[in-house]
Structure formats: structure tokens, C-alpha cells
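Support case: user asked for a sample of complex input and structure output to validate their parser. Sending the pair below.
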Amino acid sequence: MRDGKSGELPGIDPARTVRSFFIVAIAYYLGAEIAFLVGTLSDKIFAPFWPPNVVLFCALVLSPPRQWWIYILAVLPAHIAAELRVGMPATQLLVAFVTNCLVAAINAYALQWLKVGPPWFGNIRNATAYVFVTAFVGPGLCAFGGAFVQILGGGFIDDYGLYWARWYASNALGSLTLGPLALICLEKIPFSIVSPVRRRLEALLIAVVLALTCIVAFEQVPTIATGYVPALLYLPLPIIVWAAVRFGSKGASGAIMVVSLVLIWRTLNGPSPFVVGSAEANVFAMQLFLIGLSTPILLLGSAIEETRHAETVTRDREARISVAAASSSVGLWQYEIATGAFWATDYCRKLFDLPADAPLSLDRLLSRIHPNDFKAASAAFRSAIMRAAPLEIEFRVQGTDDGVHWISARAQPIFGESGEPTAMTGAFGDTTSRKMAEADADMQRQEIAHLMRVSMLGELSGGLAHELTQPLTAILSNAQAGKILLAGGKKNLEEIGNIFDDIITEDGRAGEVIHRLRGLLKKGEIKYEAIDMNELIGSTLRLLHSELIDRRISVSDDKAVDLPLTKGDPIQLQQILLNLFMNAMDAMDGVVPTRRAISVSTATTQEGGVEVRISDCGTGLPPSQEQHVFQPFFTTKKRGLGLGLPICASIMKLHGGSLSLQNNVRDGATAIFRLPPVGA
Amino acid sequence: MREAGFTTFLVDDDPAVLKAITRLLNAAGYRTRSFSSPQEFLSAHDPSIPGCAIIDLVMSELDGLHLQQALLETGSERPIIFLSGKGDVSTSVRAMKAGAVDFLTKPVKREALFSAVVRAAKVDALSRQKRDESKSIGDRLATLTHREREVLEYVIAGRLNKQIAASLGTVEKTVKVHRGRMMAKLAVKSVADLVRLADKAGIVPAQGPANGERV
């Protein structure tokens, strides 16, 4: 990369640069020696295989261009030393040097320009670029100059094409056999640390088998019909593929290296499978064979690497999502519609209280559902799957030790390319704490409603006491009258009978008041029954009778005939009526007594439910705050808590009804509440 | 108490209470008339019937105190007993200040009720007696002539006949005659009785110097 990002040899650090300088120089020299060892050909001083170029190329491609002069400078003495050892003349040496540097530089520059970097053979793009540049374009172009090396060494100008081809082939082969392995080793992936012993043994095994296979394959046995020879050449191929599949591009490049080494050694030092003509021609044939073999293998290796990497990335991502989901108490799951296959994250085991090794199947999970909820839940699952419709359900799971958890399950269908539903994907969440909080809130709401009732009755206590006093007065006076009559001895039994009748009636009257009071004061559970609102309003007004008289309020009521029954809890509904009436009474404190009036009316709603209106002529709602009256702790009363209306509103919501307050056109305000019909 | 004609008038808007207390009073021998609303009571009210009113304090249309006010405005002095389901101090004080005979809380025991009625009857009798008396006095006063009247005023001022004659510009004899006729018409035997009667009638004694000098 031009900006110096590719760098395991950064230029900033002089110590490192000096170190690299020497490493490259030495490597170059050693590479040359190895090449000579493998076999130079005749006295033309031409190696089929030139490692030094690869060394220089690696140095250049791994460092920023501005540092290249360092490495070129480093290899110059090494080159001179190596070539002088085999007695190369100066001009030839120089041209060789120039062309070697050129090919390395062009290759390195092209790859950097194409932004090819680590992972060198991790994906197809990089591998393709590498092959294209270093095995075709780079050497191909530079061969035009490189051919002169041979000519200068005593070749004929007519063989220019041949020399071009040979120069090209040996550079290309070096790039394809040594280059990949070198780059992979230089990548900072400590694969030797990562792979377990077993894999290393396998790698070793493959190498050994491959080598043996190659030896067998390339053993030319003239007595056997030479028609087999091409076929035998393919003997190593399965093993090479095995290496590529098992070890990706490392395996591929390693295998190619092994094959190349065996083949080159064979060709140069013994009977060769390539019998074309002259020794040089044989070598050339072998070079072409190797180039043709290694190119696809390298690409295969990188393709496999790319796929493996993608798989790892996906697996990591899945694991990350699982962990994230688990940390937010969510378990993920997926159900394949066609096959019934079920996948779920490990956290689902925890949610459903399954042991750690239990298999995760949908049925297994569903079997953990609490018996009370099982039917509904499994029906919901089945229906959602069958109709490929979104699922949303909550159910309880019986924990082995903890008691009950609440789980909420949601899912969405996934559709395939043809629009057919292929799977349901969803999540399980633990909503126990929310449910507990809801239950707590419910209980508190009931408590508060009860307290409001008690407080209201406290305010009404004077009036309520009066409601009891009247029947008690009647009872006492009746009884005392009876005693006088009896004492008088006149035996007016009929009159005494009447007295007892009246006493009983009046006792009943007192009893009704007490009964209503008891109902309002107790903290009982909500019970829904059929209610006649007209009757409820009537009994509420009776309770309020004394209070109304005391405050000089007249009540007019306009009850609808044939009012339908509605369903509700009589105590809570009476609480609402009491609250609304008391608000109306309080609102009229400032009104002249003769004008204080409340009107109540009932009517049937369009849906067949009940509508009740309570209207006063008092101060009305504060003008800008008509909506605020339902907010908790909002009150215009001096000693009000401000909870009455919010509680009424929540009671109405529970009943499926509605409550609203609005100012009248003239004085006062009207409260309207509606209840649904019994069937709803 | 249970004299002929003494009636207890009961006003309460709670029908059961009305019926029960009526029964109780009847059983005790009292004549009772019951009304379930103040309006009913006022429209049927006859002040000449001796008796007391027993009124519930908290009624929807007109409360007890206002009824008491209305009764007073009609000039009736019928004694009132209040009954109330609320026993608060301020109302009871107001009621008593306005001249009620008693203020009883419900449920009312017969002893309390009866003793209040007895007291009310006494008050009623007394007031009737007073009224009758002052009516008779008024009648008698009306029969006096102008001169007799003048003499009356001087006599109760303590003047001697001589002085009266001097003040009126007539002779003692004439004064004596007027005096005699006046005392006979008024049916009093002594000057002391005359003074008391004049007091009851509200007649002011004559003013001015006692020595009879003409001014």
C-alpha cells in the first residue's frame, strides 16, 4: 500500500530496518545457493527456480515504496557474491540484477496498487490478483529484458523467444511455489500455535504421502508404456486437494512446494517424466506443468480459506448474538416449517429450567409449560406455525425450585425467495419481574381504591350516621309506644302487631345502610355481576340523603326506563358514583343554597351499554386543565388528595368503560361515564 | 297537660319517624297532628289551638330554624321542641337562643320527650294566660273616657287628688268621681292593683312637677 499500511517492516524504526536489511541480504544469498544446489542447467547458468527474486519481492511488497532502495541495496552485494561464485561475467550479472529487481519491484508495486495484502491467500480476490501479477504480468513483461541475460551469457539472438519463455517460466514458478508459502509464513498468524497436535501430525502425514506419491508418479519407467505417464502425473492431485481442503491456502501452497521440489529434483537429477528433447526443454515442460498445476490449486486453497473464514465469522456473529441475547434475558429460537427442525440458544434451557445436557426441541420446551397455560400456549404455537403468522403469547413455566417464571414468546415468519414461509424465528423472554411488578401494582391499586373509599366514607360519616339515626329513632319510639300500650291493658293487639311490623321494616332500612357501608369499607376481591345502574344510583342517593339535605342540595334524577343491565363490581361502581357525587357537592359549596342542584340521568348507549351523567352547577373545571383532572395528585380542593378521579378512571378501564368530565355551557360541570353491555 | 284541646303538632319529613313518634304520643294520651312538611304545617296552622310543636331540625325544604322564624312572623308564640339526628353544639345553641323549649337528639327516649312536652304545655298555658289577661285588660282600658284615662295616668304617678285636680284644671270632687268610675271599669280594688294593671298594659305614668302648679 502506498500509504505504508502494509508493513510488517515499518520504516520508522531504524533498528528494525537495519535488521531487515541484513536479513534480506542473507536470505537472497542463501536463496541463490539453494537454487544452484537444486540444479543448474548445463553451463548456461540458468536455474529453473530462482528463490532470491521471491525474497526480494517479499521484502518489497511488505514495505512502503520509499524504503525499497534499502532492500535493493541490500541484495546487490548478495547477488554479486552469488553470481560470482558461479563465475558470471559482469555485464550479464548486472543485467540479471536489473531484471530481477525490476520483476520484484513491478510485482510488488502492482500488488500494492491493487491493495492486495494480508490475508494474502485468504480470499479469491487476493489470490487471483497475486497469481495474475506475479505469475503472468510481472514476469511476462520483465522477461523481455530478462531474455538478454541468457543472450549475454552466450546465447543466440535468434532464440530470443525461447530465452524469454525460460526466464518467464522460472520467475513465474518461483512466485507460485515459494512466494505463497513465504508470504503466509510472514503473516502474523501463528498457525503453529493455533493448531493442535493432531493437525500438525496430519499436515506431516500429508506431506510425506505427497512426497512419496510424487516420487512414484514421477519415476519414469520406460518399460511401461509411456502412455500412462501423463495419467500418473495426476496421482498427487487428490493429496494436493486434500491438503488444500484441510489446511486452506497454507495446505495448498505447502503441497505445491512439495510437488515442485520432488519434480524439479527428479527432472534435473534423474530420468524425468518430461521427455521432450533437450534437457532445457524438459525443464521447461516441467515448469509449465507446475505453473499449470499450482495456479488452480492456489486459487482452490484461497477459495476454501475464504469460505472457512466466512463460516467462522458467521459462527462468531451467532455466538455474539446469543451472548448478547442471553445477557438481556432473551433466548433466541428458530423453527423450520418444512422439516420441523428447531434451533434455540443455550439460554433457552435456563429459561425453561431444563438440565444443561437436555436436547432442545420445541416439544421439550413446551412440555415445561405450566399445566394451566399449556393448552392455550401450545395451541397458539401450533396455530402460528400453521398459518405462518406472528406469535405473541405469555405463559408460566414451573421452575424446579424457584416457583413459577413467566415467559413471553414472540415470533415472526420468515419467507423464502418464492414468498413461501420457511421458518418461524423468535425469542423467549423472562417477564417474571414485570409480572410481579404488575401484580404488585394491582394490589396497590386495590389498596388505594379501598383507602379512597374509606376516606370518602369518613367525609360522609355525619350524613351516614344520620341515615342510621332515623330508623333507630323510629324503632325506639315504636317500641316505647308499644310498651305503653301493653301497660295500658287495652289489648289493642292489632296496633301492637302494626308496631312490630314497622319495627321490622325500619330495622331493614338500617340494615341496608350498614350493608352498603360494609361493602364499601371492606377490601374484598373484585366480583363481577349483573348490575342495574338505576338501582345502584338510587341506593347511593339514599346513602347520601342526609348529606344532601344538610348541604341544601336538591337532586333531580332522570332515569331511563328499560335501562339494560351492565356487568361490573357493585362496590367499585358505587365508589365511582359516590366520588362523582361528592365532587359535585363540593363544587357547589360557594353557590347560593337555594340554587344548589345536582342532576343525574341514565341512558342507553348505541352499543347497548349504559351511560350515566352527573351534573352540578358549581365552579366547574379550571379552564386550561380539563385534561389534568385525571392525573394523580391533581386537586382543586383544599384538603383533597387528588386520587379520586384517577382511581375512578382506572376502575372504568377495568370495566371496559370510559369516564370523562367536561364543563357545562353555563355553570358547573358534568361527569359522563359509560359501561359496555353485559355481553361485551 | 292533657287538658282538652292540648295538641302536639309533629313535623318531620321522614314518614317512618313521623308515624312512630305519633304513635308514642298517642299512646301517652296526647292528641297529635302530624305533618310531613313545614309548608303543610304552616298552611294548616291555627294559633288558637293550645299545644306545642315538635319539629325535626333537618328537613329538605325548610329547616327547623326557618320554620321557627316563620311561626314567629305569624305572631304565634307556640312553644317548639326540636328533634335532630345531629347533636352539634352550634345548632342547638342557635335553637335555644331563638326561644325553643328544648332540643332533643334522636333516637329520642320517651322520658325526655314527655318531660319536654310537659314543660312546653306549661309554657303554652302560661303564655295563653298572659295573652288572655292582657286582652281583657285591653278591653277594659278601651272603655275608659279620655278624662278617666288622664286621671289614671296621674294616679299611677302617685299624685293626690288635690294635685290631680290642680293639674287637670278641675276640682277635687270631679277627680274623685272620675277616679271611682275608672277603678270600677278596670275592676281593681286598690291603687296597687291599678299600678300593676297599668304596668301590664304598658301605660306610662304622667310626668311633670307634683305640686300642681300650672305651667
